[in-house]
Amino acid sequence: MSVPRPAAVIVLAAGEGTRMKSQTPKVLHELCGRALLDHMLAAARDLGPERLIVVIGHALERMRDHLAATSPDARAVVQNEQRGTGHAVRTVLEEVGTISGTVLVTYGDVPLLRPQTLATLLERHDADGNAVTVLTAEVPDPTGYGRIIRDESGAVLEIVEEKDADAGQRAIKEMNSGIYAFDGELLADAVKRVSADNAQGEEYLTDVLAILRGDGHRVGACVAGDFVEVEGVNDRVQLAAARQVLNRRLLEAHMRAGVTIIDPAGTWIDVSVRIAPDAVIHPGTQLHGDTVIEAGAEVGPATTLTGTRVGAGATVRNAVCDHADIGPEANVGPYAYLRPGTVIGRRSKAGTFVEMKNTKVGERSKVPHLSYAGDATIGDDVNIGASTVFVNYDGVDKHHTTVRDGAFVGCDTMLIAPVTVGDGAYTAAGSVIADDVPPGSIGVARARQRNIEKWVLRRRAGTKSAAAAQRALAEQDQEKEA
Ligand code: UD1
Ligand code: CA
């Protein structure tokens, strides 16, 4: 069955969300790489609405900036005073005018709601020819929610808020999710007739159901299969619970698509991450932003990737990579930190205690141990010895270093940028290379060693070192005599 396209989706998000106890408005708190509000907007977009409207009020400037940056397709309507959900919808319709067709109303704090559930609500609304269809759920503990009041035949009569309910009504476990499909024209008329004569002195959108029913229109309900989907996030405990549910959902989709996830409880992933089949994700891994993991790559344990690509068959262990591009069959870590602009070519290695920034490494090159490479270009088949530092910063400016194909940089080399190590060139271990090394040359830039004989015996007399030296020298003398 094709889902009828709604004329508009109105997302209510003007409230403060005081229980978050936060400087950040509730709906802008992050969950799996997206603000709570943006999860709702993504689900709404899936329905292809003609208009997407967000009601904002609290933290107006931040909300406006966020919408402008992330949802230019959404229209913000300002509700200056939060006088209830009915008032919020009335404010929208007064500003944009009556909307004909189906109007879906929902909240900005229900990030687990699946597009499929909204589609089912719309189908039911359409098929039954209702004036309003409310999405409900049977919950173990309905405390705080509006209750769905039905007659003996099961027809929906009205919604009663917890604060206005009597004991019998409070015992009802079917709650109002706060998500509805309305006939837009009937909504525009009914929402004007909602009073604020109730326990909270607010204009309740829920009252629209009884009003439309009183006018002789059809009022229906659609019961959500999974109540977890419609539970909103009100505090940080619920935020953590929602994160667990959504994370699990995302990981299960990846596992069903052929990705091995060793420890789903200890793996955290954003909605925008893509992983190809036969990739293996080890425990303690976090995958953020537009991270892409290609076929057969192994990531983790204890690895955090942000906006990073991991090529097919590559291995990334105990690493933190931020906007890096790791080529196929490359090897990163354990204990590597790849910062933005790092590109590791096919079969290359950024090994243990290696940090790189804005560095492009060619193919089959190795930076195996204890090194820093910043602002550099490293060619193919290069070996960078342990403890090499690309000295890119002179205290004022950053400079570039080039190490060309087949070069061999000795251990503990300081490459003082700007500098170039030519094709097939070497540097001697412990060198401070401030001048270019021509192709095929070796750059030696260190003092010659000088040994001062018996210095320890004279200057460290009486120490264990002096005793050890004395024994060795005596043995040498005996050998000479023999
Ligand atoms: C509302 C419903 C209740 C339902 C519950 C589900 C009403 C009267 N009650 O109660 O039946 O069970 O949601 O969560 O509708 N908002 C505005 N402007 C306002 C008031 C609210 O934009 O003037 C927004 C809030 O930011 C929030 C949403 O609407 O996202 C719900 O408002 P809230 O005050 O939390 O309603 P509840 O009391 O939870
Ligand atoms: Ca609420």
From TrEMBL:
Residues 1-236 are annotated as: Pyrophosphorylase. Residues 9-151 form the MobA-like NTP transferase domain. Gene3D superfamilies: Hexapeptide repeat proteins, Spore Coat Polysaccharide Biosynthesis Protein SpsA, Chain A. It holds the Pfam family NTP_transf_3. Mg(2+) binds at residues 109, 234. Homotrimer. It catalyses: N-acetyl-alpha-D-glucosamine 1-phosphate + UTP + H(+) = UDP-N-acetyl-alpha-D-glucosamine + diphosphate; alpha-D-glucosamine 1-phosphate + acetyl-CoA = N-acetyl-alpha-D-glucosamine 1-phosphate + CoA + H(+). The active site is at 369 (proton acceptor). The gene is glmU. Residues 237-257 are annotated as: Linker. Its cofactor is Mg(2+). It comes from the Bacteria. In the N-terminal section; belongs to the N-acetylglucosamine-1-phosphate uridyltransferase family. Its EC number is 2.7.7.23, 2.3.1.157. This is Bifunctional protein GlmU. Binds 1 Mg(2+) ion per subunit. Residues 258-482 are annotated as: N-acetyltransferase. GO terms for molecular function: glucosamine-1-phosphate N-acetyltransferase activity; magnesium ion binding; UDP-N-acetylglucosamine diphosphorylase activity. GO terms for cellular component: cytoplasm; membrane. The keyword Kinase does not apply. HAMAP family: GlmU. UDP-N-acetyl-alpha-D-glucosamine binds at residues 12-15, 26, 79, 84-85, 107-109, 146, 161, 176, 234, 339, 357, 372, 383. One of its GO terms (biological process) is cell wall organization. Catalyzes the last two sequential reactions in the de novo biosynthetic pathway for UDP-N-acetylglucosamine (UDP-GlcNAc). The C-terminal domain catalyzes the transfer of acetyl group from acetyl coenzyme A to glucosamine-1-phosphate (GlcN-1-P) to produce N-acetylglucosamine-1-phosphate (GlcNAc-1-P), which is converted into UDP-GlcNAc by the transfer of uridine 5-monophosphate (from uridine 5-triphosphate), a reaction catalyzed by the N-terminal domain.
